[in-house]
Amino acid sequence: MCRILRLLARTSALGPSAALFASVAMFASAALFAIVLAQVGVRALAQEVDAVRMEKGRAIYAAQCASCHGERGEGVSGAYPNALTGDFTISEIAKVVDETMPEGEPEKCKGEDAQAVAAYMHAAFYSLEAQAKLNPPRIAFARLTANQLRNSLSDLYGRFSGFSDLKTERGVRAQYFDGDRFKKENEKIARVDPVIDFDFGKESPGEGIAADSFYIYWEGSLLPEKTGRYEIVVNSSCSFKMNFGKLDRIFIDNHVQSGDKTEFRQSIYLTAGRLYPFKIDFIQRKRKTELPPARIRLSWVPPGGVEQTIPDHHLVPSAAPATFSLQASLPADDRSYGFERGLAVNKQWDESTTASAVEFAQIAASELFPRYVRSQKDKPNDQRQVLKGFLEQVLAVAFRGALEPDLAKLYVSDQVDQTADDAEAIRRVLLLGLKSPRFLYPLADVDKSVSRRTANRLALTLFDSLPADDWLLRKIDKNELETEAQVREAAKRMLNDYRARAKLLDGFHEWLNLSQQNEITKNQELYPGFDAELAMELRQSLRAAIEEIVWSDTSDYRQLFRSKSAYTTAKIASFYGEEWAPFDSNKKGLQKTARDSERRLGVLTHPLLMSQLAYHDTTSPIHRGVFLIRFMLGRTLRPPNEAFSPLSPDLHPNLTTRERVALQTSPQNCQACHEKINALGFALENYDAVGRFRATEGEKPIDATGSYRSRDDLPITFQGASELAQYLADSPDAHRAFVNKLFQHLVKQPPDAYGLDTLKKLTDQFRQNGYNIRDLVVEIAVVASRIHATPLPANPTSVALKGQP
């Protein structure tokens, strides 16, 4: 202050105006300085108060709680054995302590004492953050999951056949010929057909083509959106042949018609994110007998769906490179942590990996090796070097790194030299190699280069697979995946791929708890017309809405709760009414709605989600509340004390669903959880059991008020679904939950295993980047690919691998 006064004295010599200006400036500086000092003092005082409160809480906990709950809340056998961990906020813990603790003598810990104990417990051991500090997560050493095994084998095949670029065109390429043969000079029509569903009757399919003798050639690729077993169905009254997976791989052969059979079915397991090339030769021939009507339809039964003509958005009008899809059955993976993990190593897993290796070896011998031989026709083949070279290339990709001479001898040369039959040699080598930990354990690569290890993690994170693309392997060879900028650039390129898009879409199904496609059934007296076909089209509608948002220019997460548009079909519009009318009523299939609706709130109120989170005849605020807490907001709930059936509406005909649920969950032992669950679920009561908007239930107006207490201990209230959706769009809790769920899905590890502040950093970055979903995926891939992340547990396997199967 003395210094400021001295400075003020000097200003008098500057003249009145200058002196006044300088004086004001100095007083302002002094005031600002005083404010800063005050703020620093307030913070210091607050920290001192917190420290005092924490010490007070620690002392009370030690004196009154530790004997039953343990020094760090770990539990005490014979008293309270369960660990004190969970998701309650400080005020919620304080309420429990104030009302019930110590057991039998709650009067001993009230008011400020209860608050102090709660604050200490929350910071010391109760919260998820405290638990992470006490027991830091580590990157789990895991085998390939079932899906990772399928994708790895598909890409191992693709290393020799090639991969497809992303394409926007949809439909099937078609050529129509006059006469019953493929003759270029007789081609009359060349076009792209949206789908294959034609009934020409006894008429000509087009100008210049005879009605009694024509040939149609369709060629394209099938793009499944979900991994699972499909049934491909061809209905045809004429001779046809369909090849699938490879243009010369016969799938259904009706070239020589037999009897009156017109329906042909073939079951096949397909992997999402893969383009499956196919072609169909369809022939109407002249005959002496009566000419049959010409009709053909290509349809499928997708996993959990019903038969339908394969929609145009699943068809690409060009033939992709040949593809392999594993048909062997694989056991389900552990999901106890909320995401798939490859942990179980048992007889079932051993048998399934053996079957997988044998299946791949067979197609390698019949398709890949002959192709490789043709590419090596000018090379010497002394001592079967071509075969050995082929197998060394296969295993170099499978083992995620070049084979050292001793490994090449063990896995390839020694096996080939023991049999004169090439196919048998291929089976021996690949059975040995694909059963090896070098293939089945993708992170057993500590002896590899930085770029190789980075590429392995990028492929695992974004493709659920291994590095097999030419450009990625070149970057490994040139050591161009060592800096964060290089990794980020590679991740962005990999994101623009069918494989990454399929994995990301599956991640959204996980986030919305829709990955397990349970059948949705409704009371047909109350909801006539809601059937399996409608449910399937609603799934397609939701998928299209998600993909539009994710792959838009902004890729804005908030639009998942703000979007007023939707995708619809004629069947959806017929059931849900005018708000779901299509933009073009003359167009078949999936398309945008004609107009936006204020009642649509992105994915939150989509009819599929609302129908899934409801009973067959009524809404279920409990299911909806649990979904919102666990999946949208990332909070935890303890299992219910006992299972119960909902109160029947017939027992309380004058009560609304909200009133019945409140009645049933009113007991004190229910309220600890249902106070949270119900308060969120009630906000969606304007949407009935099939997701249609309603203002009343019976003769009573809907009460859709709700509430939530955030992780920051702030009370939030909602006046219906619109305010709830806005909160989910802007909520730090929701952002954190989304980032966490996406990380777990992509990496198959918890974020905290990569550093205790990883989730916070990614969430902050997500917010700073305008909630851009694609940018978030790239940043997750960058984090997961850092080879200096928390090391794997001591792993003797990585040492024992040297020179071993």
Features:
805 residues, alpha+beta, Cytochrome Bc1 Complex, Chain D, domain 2, Jelly Rolls, 4 domains, 7-stranded antiparallel sheet, 5-stranded antiparallel sheet, 44% helix, disordered C terminus
Structure description:
The protein folds into four domains: 133 residues, Cytochrome c-like domain (Cytochrome Bc1 Complex, Chain D, domain 2, Orthogonal Bundle); 182 residues, no CATH class; 145 residues, Jelly Rolls (Sandwich); 219 residues, no CATH class. The protein contains 28 helices and 18 strands. The strands form five sheets. Strands 1, 2, 4, 6, 7, 9 and 12 form a seven-stranded antiparallel beta sheet that branches. Strands 3, 5, 8, 10 and 11 form a five-stranded antiparallel beta sheet that branches. The protein is globular, with a radius of gyration of 33 Å. The N and C termini lie far apart (78 Å). The relative contact order is 0.08. The N terminus and C terminus are likely disordered.
